[in-house]
Each structure stands twice: as structure tokens, then as C-alpha cells.
Amino acid sequence: MAWAMKQRAGGAPEKLVLLALARLADKRGEVHCSNSAIGEICEIEAEGVRRNLRKLEASGLIVRSPIFREDGGRDANRIVLAWPKPRQRRAENVAACDISGRGAPIGGEWGRA
Fold first, then answer.
1. Are 48 and 69 found together in one domain?
2. DSSP state for residue 81 in the 8-state scheme
3. Are residue 71 and residue 91 in the same domain, yes or no?
4. Judgement on whether residues 62 and 88 belong to the same structural domain of the protein
5. What percent of the chain has pLDDT over 90?
6. Alpha helix (H) ranges present in the chain?
7. Cα–Cα distance for residue pair 84/102, rounded to 1 Å
8. Is the pLDDT of residue 104 over 70?
9. Do 50 and 18 belong together in one domain?
10. What range does the domain containing 109 cover?
11. Same domain, yes or no, for 51 and 73?
12. What is the average per-residue pLDDT within 9-28?
């Protein structure tokens, strides 16, 4: 939620939808919710939700991908917030660091000294 508060979404309706998405997102930043459910939260029509989702996607704040049921029908879109993911460091790069002041790790996938 704090991430969404800091973003420039383009206007009040876009910001409202972004905040709702951030509130609904799981730990990975994924939201599985219908446009009408988002609209109920934001008190806007489903078409307004679709329009604002398009704007948020165009600005790079979210990524949408369709989900299909086994019968071929469409389900709610999978929406992923573009918030920064925690960095996962490899143990071999953490253990061996360059002390020359350049800051690049020694060994591991970046090469050997």
C-alpha cells in the first residue's frame, strides 16, 4: 500500500484503482479480482475500472494477463503490481566481495579475480 501511495498514477481515478489493487494484492503483488469487484470497492462502474486499468498498464504500474477456465471461458484477469521485488542474492556472491572499492562481487556468476 505504501508503494501505491508514492506512485504518480495520472489522476484521482487511476490512483484510487491502484490503491484498491495494492490493498487486494498478495505478497507477490498479484491480484485476482473481477473488474466489477474492483468497481464496487472504488465506487465506479466496471467500464471505468477497465479504462483505468488500461491507463495503469500503459504507465507501467501494473501488468495484466488473461486467465482462462478449463471450458475456454474467460476468468478475472491476473494483475501484477510493478512494485520492486525483494532482491534475492546468491550465497556465493554474498560471501566473496571485492574490497578494491569498485563494489563488484568476486567469483560466482560475475567472474573470477
1. yes
2. E
3. no
4. no
5. 53
6. 2-6, 12-24, 35-42, 46-58, 91-95
7. 25
8. no
9. yes
10. 84-113
11. yes
12. 94
**Could you tell me the three cell numbers for 63?**
501488468
Model confidence, pTM: 0.70
Could you give the CA distance from residue 47 to residue 72 in angstroms, rounded to a whole number?
23
pLDDT per position as a tens digit, 72-97:
888 888 999 998 765 554 444 444 44
pLDDT at position 85 is: 62
Q: Which amino acid is at 113?
A: A
For 93, residues 6+ apart whose C-beta sits below 8 A from its C-beta are 105, 107, 108, 109, 110
Bridge partners, 65 (sequence order): 78
Count of the separate structural domains present in the chain: 2
Q: What spatial distance separates the first Cα and last Cα of the chain, rounded to whole Å?
A: 43
Residue 29, all three cell numbers: 503483488
Domain shared by 68 and 20, yes or no: yes
Query: Are residues 70 and 35 part of one domain?
Result: yes
Cell numbers describing residue 78: 491476473
Nine-digit cell string for 27: 505478497
Q: Calculate mean pLDDT across residues 56-67.
A: 93
